[in-house]
Specification:
By secondary structure, the protein is α/β, with parallel strands linked by helices. Helix content is about 40%, strand content about 10%. It has a single domain, classed as TIM Barrel. Helix 7 crosses helix 8 and helix 10 (about 210-225) runs parallel beside helix 11.
Length: about 325
């Protein structure tokens, strides 16, 4: 039986995305901080495969191929510009192997750092960059396209244009840095309307900001458009004055104390559903424990049913001794 596509699934109810890849793989020693390029798909494919497995088992319904920053210009910063096809192909294949019949696989495009407002030549360069990656990803059989982390609405619109040319459903999300607008001065509502008008099937926001600072703009998007919305915040706590986690002095080596708890991410998932967000995922800093708690909160996973014989004369763990089973510390409320 053919698995349902992303639009069919969204029609039935909220879809749970996966979590962050590059920062988590950096923490594990497989990705270099700074360039954050995804050559791990070639150099340590087992490490990438394992992270996909973790997200799948946590309840994610979509696995994103690790092709973020897998463009020729970005790979050139680490001397891998001639490995673009090999890397994009490997990343999609690994995700597909893990997804099996359980998850959809999304191809992935990201900001290029080459876009310049008002520059036709820069726009054409971005188009060429996207097309080069998409040709490989589509050939390897991705189910739909995700274009993400676009500070410029103009670049996001190019991602919609190129994604739609593949004939696959296309999801494109913008990001806000430390101001509540895109780098080219557009509000959340205006950006959502522009992306929908350009033909995007799913629009929204991702990265840079935690739930606390992203759900407000997402509510503005929900009021502005009736189509499918996606939200993928980071799982790091940031101050209101500097909501973009990459602008903090803790980025990237001292973020650990800022990581959100699993309960905070479960609360985010439930709030996102209340707002009317259709694709509920996460980005940098979100790991399998976050996605699992989000899955439970959204009713995507059954409660743990493994055998545990309790009720003896004495408690057999601190969990019982301090009555945490009733408190449910750290679990979704």
């Amino acid at each position: 039986m053919k698995k349902k596509g992303i639009l069919e699934r969204l029609k039935e109810g909220p879809v749970l995305g996966d979590g962050g890849y590059l920062l988590e793989l950096e923490k594990r020693g497989w990705v270099r901080a700074g360039p954050f390029t995804p050559e791990v798909a070639l150099t340590h494919p087992g490490a990438l495969r394992e992270l996909h497995v973790e997200f799948r088992e946590a309840g994610a319904e979509v696995l994103q191929a690790l092709t973020f920053y897998a463009s020729r210009d970005k790979l050139a910063t680490v001397g891998l510009e001639n490995h673009l096809e090999e890397l994009n192909r490997a990343a999609v294949r690994i995700a597909r192997e893990v997804a099996d019949d359980r998850c959809l696989v999304a191809g992935n495009l990201s900001l290029t750092w080459m876009y310049e407002p008002g520059s036709a030549s820069a726009a054409d360069r971005v188009r060429k960059t996207f097309d080069e990656q998409l040709a490989v990803q589509v050939d390897e059989g991705v189910d739909f396209i995700i274009g993400e982390t676009f500070s410029f609405l103009g670049e996001a619109l190019i991602a919609v244009e190129r994604g739609k040319k593949t004939g696959l459903p296309t999801m494109v999300t913008i990001c806000f840095e430390n101001k509540d607008e895109t780098a080219d001065g557009k509000s959340a509502a205006d950006a959502a309307k522009a992306l929908i008008d350009a033909g995007a099937d799913i629009v929204g926001m991702n990265c840079l900001r935690p739930p606390e600072h992203i759900l407000g703009p997402m509510e503005e998007m929900r009021k502005a458009v009736s189509g499918y919305l996606a939200c993928q915040p980071v799982a790091y706590r940031t101050p209101k004055s500097k909501p973009d986690f990459t602008s903090l002095p803790e980025f990237p080596y001292a973020l650990d104390p800022l990581q959100l708890t699993r309960k905070e991410m479960a609360d985010y998932a439930m709030r996102a559903r209340e707002i009317g967000i259709n694709y509920i995922g996460a980005c940098c800093g979100s790991v399998a424990m976050h996605i699992r708690e989000m899955a439970w909160a959204l009713g995507k996973l059954p409660e743990d049913s493994r055998i545990w014989k309790k009720g003896g004369e004495k408690p057999m763990s601190a969990y019982e001794y301090y009555d945490h089973d009733n408190v449910k510390a750290g679990a979704a409320s």
